[in-house]
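TICKET: design request
STATUS: open
ATTACHED STRUCTURE:
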């Protein structure tokens, strides 16, 4: 029995003698998901999730707080509730469920930043050029703006904020698990390369009070990173150093880490970055490099290969398999000594090849 023979689902009649009917529904659901993602982004931009309560809230009340058109907002929330995001009670009353609550700005693992980035004009403009990317392998951002993602961000503060907020969303939950499960007790000073606002490093330092840390990232993120260091009350153990890991990496640490950054880059750029890390490690006894990435494998390829499309679209990089990352590391003079999986992230600890 094939999927085409399965009973009626979602109120849609399937002709068991014509597999194209069910196939059409599969494609339709994919397109619907895209529309729903736009609705989520727009609602987060207007802070709608922050105005929905734990008890049923009238659509008129939500719309008034958000400054939105109530009938149109109702249609958006109705569609999302029908697809498992928010709950609708009665006619025009909504409340949170576990999924929608994650879109609130004050949730400890808020996904609001990521939702807003997916709907940001820079991201949308890039996707409008995806058909061109298929012809030459260049990123949608490059086609849309004539610049790399990072050149574009350096000239657009709003886009930089959206991108940074998305990275915070992406790091918050995994940071807790990584900080507790990886043996940071074996190290004294850690440098987070491309550390952004410091979400991961701050969590690591909070869990490991003996550690000192450095956030290393582009100059345009300095103000954001230093503010976050002060907010986390980590000024005595954490500092920000401005720089570009394509050019150099600061020395003096016994652990360097990169989380979800190498897949933003081509193989040649990755090798360049990794060689800079190898040079920074130098001959420091016991120094290691920790790579944390989404890695394509047989268990997760449904979503990692989809992410790969977005990675081409925005930074112009690509997702890789574990074997591909190990090959890049070896070409840079680093050999993997330990591998682990924490949540949906693969951790590869490597040491200099002697």
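STATUS: resolved
RESOLUTION: sequence designed for all positions
ATTACHED SEQUENCE:
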């Amino acid at each position: 029995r094939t999927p085409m023979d399965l009973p009626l689902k979602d109120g849609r009649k399937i002709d068991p003698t014509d597999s194209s009917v069910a196939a059409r529904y599969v494609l339709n659901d994919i397109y619907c998901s895209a529309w729903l993602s736009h609705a989520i982004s727009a609602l987060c931009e207007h802070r709608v999730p922050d105005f929905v309560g734990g008890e049923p809230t009238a659509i008129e009340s939500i719309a008034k707080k958000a400054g939105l058109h109530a009938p149109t907002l109702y249609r958006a929330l109705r569609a999302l509730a029908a697809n498992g995001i928010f709950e609708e009670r009665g006619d025009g009353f909504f409340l949170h469920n576990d999924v929608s609550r994650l879109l609130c700005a004050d949730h400890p693992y808020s996904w609001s930043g990521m939702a807003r980035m997916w709907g940001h004009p820079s991201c949308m403009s890039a996707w409008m050029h995806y058909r061109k990317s298929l012809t030459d392998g260049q990123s949608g951002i490059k086609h849309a703006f004539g610049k790399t993602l990072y050149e574009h961000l350096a000239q657009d503060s709003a886009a930089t904020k959206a991108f940074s907020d998305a990275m915070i969303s992406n790091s918050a939950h995994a940071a807790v698990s990584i900080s507790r499960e990886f043996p940071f007790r074996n190290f004294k000073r850690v440098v987070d390369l491309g550390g952004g606002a410091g979400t991961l490093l701050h969590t690591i330092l909070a869990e490991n009070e003996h550690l000192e840390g450095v956030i290393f990232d582009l100059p345009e993120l300095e103000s954001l990173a230093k503010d976050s260091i002060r907010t986390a009350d980590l000024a005595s153990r954490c500092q920000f150093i401005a720089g570009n890991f394509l050019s150099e990496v600061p020395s003096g640490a016994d652990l360097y880490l990169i989380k979800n950054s190498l897949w933003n880059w081509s193989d040649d750029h990755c090798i360049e970055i990794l060689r800079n890390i190898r040079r920074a490690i130098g001959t420091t006894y016991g120094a290691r490099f920790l790579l944390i990435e989404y890695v394509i494998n047989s268990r997760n390829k449904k979503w990692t290969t989809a992410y790969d499309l977005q990675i081409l679209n925005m930074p112009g990089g690509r997702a890789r398999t574990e074997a591909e990352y190990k090959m890049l590391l070896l070409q840079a003079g680093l050999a993997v000594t330990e591998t682990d999986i924490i949540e949906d992230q693969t951790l590869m600890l490597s040491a200099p090849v002697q």
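CLOSING REMARK: Residues 19-45 form the longest helix (27 residues). The chain has 15 helices and twelve strands.
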